[in-house]
């Protein structure tokens, strides 16, 4: 029999997935969430939405299952009274900006994944349409800049691209010279 201790300030117990004390029966109703939202600063809620989108994208990139307990513990924290609204807004952002949908694949352990809603491009079409590929890279970079408050350091942008396996010092088969593309072509296009 395992002992479960309530962690200070977290609001949920540390068990198998840290999610036992935060089940759906304790979720606030829609009207309660709306009242709770009115008590919160919209900038703070929007910041949590941005943090959640970034958290989900990193987890998805690393191919790590996304647990609700991790979302609560690492991102939502003291905002769990508006959890559903933050997750809904993050879901809309993921859909509109990245074409991704947050899907619960395990309802018992509350595990999620991101799936693409974008149509698949087939074989040669990927290489023929370099402008579409460059536009996609530009959108990813602009989204990253937006998520970082519109003024990230250059080094943060390059590190982000490295995580996506787009190396600034190496020639990319679709984008060519990535550093030149970003620093010259994208800058010239404003």
From TrEMBL:
Region annotated Disordered, chain positions: 1-41
Database matches in InterPro entries: MAGE, MAGE_WH1, MAGE_WH2, MHD_dom
Limits of the MAGE domain: 45-190
Biased segments, Polar residues type: 23-35
A GO cellular-component term linked to this record: nucleus
SMART domains noted in UniProt: MAGE
Record-linked Pfam families: MAGE
Top-level taxon of the source organism: Eukaryota
Protein name stated in the entry: NSE3 protein
Native organism taxonomy: Eukaryota, Metazoa, Chordata, Craniata, Vertebrata
């Amino acid at each position: 029999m395992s002992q479960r201790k309530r962690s200070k300030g977290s609001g949920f117990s540390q068990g198998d997935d840290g999610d036992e004390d935060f089940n759906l029966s304790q979720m606030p109703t829609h009207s309660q969430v709306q009242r709770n939202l009115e008590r919160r600063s919209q900038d703070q809620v929007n910041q949590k939405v941005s943090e959640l989108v970034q958290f989900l994208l990193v987890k998805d990139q690393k191919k790590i299952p996304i647990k609700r307990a991790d979302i609560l513990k690492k991102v939502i924290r003291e905002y769990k009274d508006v959890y559903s609204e933050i997750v809904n807004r993050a879901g809309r952002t993921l859909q509109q900006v990245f074409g991704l949908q947050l899907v619960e694949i395990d309802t018992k352990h509350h595990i999620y994944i991101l799936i693409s809603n974008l149509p698949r491009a087939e074989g040669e079409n990927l290489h023929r349409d370099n402008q579409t590929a460059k536009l996609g890279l530009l959108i990813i970079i602009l989204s990253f800049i937006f998520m970082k408050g519109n003024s990230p350091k250059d080094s943060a942008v390059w590190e982000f691209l490295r995580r996506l396996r787009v190396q600034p010092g190496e020639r990319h088969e679709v984008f060519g010279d990535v550093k030149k593309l970003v620093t010259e072509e994208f800058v010239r296009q404003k």
